[in-house]
């Protein structure tokens, strides 16, 4: 049986009476911090179940990063992405995974915004990154660009779009200039 009964629901459906109903009060009593704690626990203890949750509701986690600045850091740990190192059909790469695999002298987290994964895998913007064996996150959801507005960095590592014309590559990634001897 539900925690509320039919007699708890008012017959009058005026806005004021709906706002004062017991189910409505219980809805507003939910603690977002408690929900985040449950999701963090699920992600760390049962990756398979969290993956199923991510497939159904991941876009809302991304939206939460964009719209809830006070929870953005905690929500960022729950994000899952496709990347240049993953070949699966589901996004499984976390930002923690990415940071752990970064090269010692790598200062940025690299990503590319695309319409679909096929486009990402064949993008010429990734050639330099492939040549240096650097991972690039594939952001293919419509909400990703919106999410990035509130996620400029992660763990002190700035996020950089490889498609950005103004992207400044580190010296060790720049092609060596060849000088001709005369």
**What is the H/E string?**
HHHHHEHEHHEHEE
CATH topology: Rossmann fold
Average residue pLDDT: 83
The main pleated sheet reads as: 5 strands, mixed
Which structural class do you get from the secondary structure elements? alpha/beta
CATH class: Alpha Beta
Q: How many discrete domains?
A: 1
Radius of gyration: 22 Å
Total helical segments: 9
Notes on the protein architecture:
There is one protein chain. This protein has 182 residues and is an alpha/beta fold. 41% of the residues lie in helices and 9% in strands. It contains nine helices and five strands. It has a five-stranded mixed beta sheet. Helix 3 packs antiparallel against helix 4. The longest helix has 21 residues. The relative contact order is 0.12. The mean pLDDT is 83.
Topology:
Blueprint (H helix, E strand, L loop, with lengths): L14 H5 L2 H7 L3 H14 L1 H21 L4 H5 L5 E2 L11 H7 L7 E5 L3 H5 L5 H5 L5 E3 L4 H5 L4 E2 L2 E5 L21
Parallel strand pairs: 2-3, 2-5
Antiparallel strand pairs: 1-3, 4-5
Give a brief outline of the structure.
The protein has 182 residues and is an alpha/beta fold. It has helices spanning 15-19, 22-28, 32-45, 47-67, 72-76, 95-101, 117-121, 127-131, 144-148, and strands at residues 82-83, 109-113, 137-139, 153-154, 157-161.
